[in-house]
Amino acid sequence: MTVGVIDIVVPFYGRVDYLAETVDSVLAQDDPAWRLTVVQDGEHAGLTTSDWERRRSDPRVRWVTNPHRLGLPGNFQRSLDLVEHDWCVFPGCDDVLLPSYVRTVRQVLSSRERVDMVLPGVRVMDAESSPSTPLADRVKTLLRRRHGRGDLSGERLATSLMHGNWLYFPALCWRSARITPIGFRQDLPTTLDLALAAQVVLAGGVLALTEVEAFRYRRHGLSESSRAAATRARFAEEQRLFEELQASFEAAGWTDAARAARWHVTSRVHRGLAHVARLWPTGAPWASAPGAR
């Protein structure tokens, strides 16, 4: 498969210093076939200094400021609307791409005839950029290791994701033509990633896995995902999504996936741990674990 430029689109609504790391990691790619777009949702201090002008001077970098604040799901949809190439990725504005990210993804794609998503190896880091292994990410690693490398699709992939969402959405490279007609759900601000992946799988999408590490995912207490992770609204939203997906899988005849969506085991466990943490916020065994959220 011939693979061209990859659109790297960063929805920005966080810390300027983290964003600087993200942008610099893109500029450091050892494969030049990329185009970076930063989508600024509202005004942020510190973005008009000479240092930022230096970063913007690369012709492959563009900066888009929304005329008014769209919020997280709206900014993701705006980011998707700005994609112009066949492949795209949406890193968090606090994540870091290793210099090999674009090269790794393009190598995977060039060796496959039919792929719609590529997930490279991911390492988790904390707020200070040190390696971190929170419980949630240890679970993700175990779930992913069941599949190793290669391609996944259909009911097998759907069932696995319903048991536990082990994807790292910010590291996923997508076929633009697959996700543009679907878009990001505006009514699912904390689960829009799983909702999109599930719809791609239902539409026949294929996920390619490689164990080559090419991405650093930052998990810290100030991130959007961490702030939302243990809220009642998050779990109510998850419940609604799983019920919708159960119905979709049943309609497709995917009985195993429907059963997994009905039980959504890891989500239930997460909800239970969050409930106990609210009752026992300082003495819970996991509360003092490095990187625990």
Automatic annotation (TrEMBL):
Origin superkingdom: Bacteria
GO MF annotation, one: transferase activity
Signal peptide (from-to): none
Gene3D superfamilies listed in its UniProt record: Spore Coat Polysaccharide Biosynthesis Protein SpsA, Chain A
Protein name: Glycosyltransferase
Glycosyltransferase 2-like domain mapped to chain residues: 8-170
Keyword annotations from UniProtKB, A to Z: Transferase
Coiled-coil ranges from the UniProt annotation: none
Species the sequence originates in: Nocardioides marmotae
